[in-house]
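User: I'll paste a sequence; please echo it back and then give the predicted structure.

Assistant: Echoing your sequence first, then the prediction.
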Amino acid sequence: MCAEAARTRGDPLAGTAPYGGVWILIEYRAGWPPNGFDGLDLDPGTKKLVFSAAQAVRARILLIRRHGRRTAEGAGRWAVLRHEKSGAHRQRWGTWRRDEDLADIVRALAEPGEPGLPPVVLVCAHGRHDICCSVRGRPVGRALSERWPDLVWECTHVGGDRFAANVVVAPDGVYYGALDADSSVTTVAEHLVGRVHARHLRGYTDLVPAQQAAVAALLGRFGPAGRHDYTVVATTREHDRWRIHVAGRPPHPPACHVEVRSHRTPPRRLTCRGLSMASTVVYEVTSIRVD
């Protein structure tokens, strides 16, 4: 299975979070198609409207549901979660019964949203996309739901099947991977009190992969930090090498210069459902200098 193979190979987590700052969540309690929202049998006009609006702002559409037994009756919820460049987090929530009600999402994308709401914890449990997401994701979804029932949702594919179980905290824009039930509770508990650890961190979604790897290295070297305690202030690239200047808030180092080297791996099977081999780009931190 892809997650077991990735652990055996030692595939690095840092630098693997997809880029983006807007999430559209749609509660859908029936079975999830392998391709998620794209595969739903919804009103074509409404579906096209939501998809086009999402594309315009590079939003990711995820289907969500609570863990455990569920009924298809009653209104479902939807949300637009936004992580702004300033670090502000905003959310807009609504409900839907008819397909056409989902058009409200388009209007929500044009609104600023409400600040100050607690983050949403998303656990990929999309077994029809990749079996590892179900086998490893469902136990994590159960453990986290028992601890934070109001914050936690299972969701469709978030990327990186081989890193299952994957957890995304949004709109913080933080990806964690290679979790199990115990480590997920510890990791999320620390996140919620403002302590991001390097061990299971895949990256911050407002940074490109090399920058994600640089910040993860600083967390590993100097200990956990808040989501915005490190800021990338400058990045230069020469071929496969990156120089990244990172500013830290006290008590973290105020100025760090991180060098990162990228290289491509040999072809390998990256998902359980994948029919072909593919290579990936890995970002390796080669030095850290503190001013």
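The chain has one domain: 1-207. Residues 71 and 174 are 30 Å apart (CA to CA).
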